[in-house]
Amino acid sequence: MIFEHEIPKGSRLYFGKAAKAKRELEYKISTLLDSRGFEEIVTPNFSYSQHQAIANERKLIKFSDEKNEQVSLRADSTLDVVRIITKRLGRATDHKKWFYIQPIFSYPSTEDYQIGCEWICHDNIVDILNLTGDVLVALNINPILQLSNINIPKLVSKELDIDIQLFKNGEIAKLLSLDIQWLNELVKVKNIEDLENSIKLVPQSIKVELEKLLKTAKEVSYKNLVIAPLYHGSLKYYDDVYYRVIQDNYVLCKGGKYSSEGISSLGFALYTDSLLKILED
């Protein structure tokens, strides 16, 4: 039995002080992004291409349009923003820096608010990392920024002929059980010094991507930085150095470098609901 006052599990309700805190957070971050040259875009809630962004398609809320083409509720904003700017609005604007404030939806009835930005046709990952750091400083919080490179677990998997699912599932114990010295050292990496030491031990096939990660880490201005070379995230489109921001078991932000429509771009999404919980605490 469903009572009149009930709302679906996973949905969001803000009122009173909480609604005011959400509005003030969105205003503060959007003002900062605007000052850095980002313009706002609000994309449709419905999309034809969400399967290209989400690894687990069972998380998509799907239905059919009037022509029986499959439509999904927006579960991720990144690729839709890039596609709309480059394909639909290409003749109307040549602006490359965009931000959005909008929810995403996942099966069966979960909604999460995001504040995100996309820097189209730009590939210096340090710029978006330092922008993320500036946002965290502006909010007066100091969570961990975890820096990774999606190509490293892929290369290690190929080098050792092991299942990539070990990395996707974070099965560190199984990796350590292989008892391979250079792999053990990679598992232990947390900072720049650890990474420098591990690069001396790894096979040549992996060094280039580790060195790319090291170079990026050295140029990041945000201080609470942790390096996790073997981390494998869930979003399909990140194809190089990427990152997440975490505190107290909350993921506050995900971002990185990706390619869409043959264009290399950068972006991040801040998770509004988690940020509000951290700021309230």
Automatic annotation (TrEMBL):
SUPFAM superfamilies for this protein: Class II aaRS and biotin synthetases
Domain Class II Histidinyl-tRNA synthetase (HisRS)-like catalytic core: residue ranges: 18-273
Pfam short name (any one): tRNA-synt_His
Keywords assigned: Amino-acid biosynthesis, Glycosyltransferase, Histidine biosynthesis, Transferase
Gene Ontology molecular function, alphabetical: glycosyltransferase activity; histidine-tRNA ligase activity
InterPro entries for the chain: aa-tRNA-synth_II/BPL/LPL (IPR045864), HisRS-like_core (IPR041715), HisRS/HisZ (IPR004516)
GO CC annotation: cytoplasm
GO biological process terms held by the UniProt record: histidyl-tRNA aminoacylation; L-histidine biosynthetic process
PANTHER family tied to this protein: ATP PHOSPHORIBOSYLTRANSFERASE REGULATORY SUBUNIT, HISTIDYL-TRNA SYNTHETASE
Protein's recorded name: ATP phosphoribosyltransferase regulatory subunit
Naturally occurring in which organism (per UniProt): Halarcobacter anaerophilus
